Amino acid sequence: MNEWTDIEDLVSRAQRGDRQAYGDLFEAFWPSIYAMALARLRDVDEAQDLAQDVWVHAYMKLDQLRQPAAFAGWLRQITARMVINRVSRRHPGDLADDTLIDDTAAPCDAPLDQLIQREELDGLRQGLDRLKPMDRDTLLAFYYNDQSLETISRESAAPVGTIKRRLHVARKRLRQEVECALQ
Question: What number does CATH give the domain 110-183?
Answer without folding.
Answer: 1.10.10.10
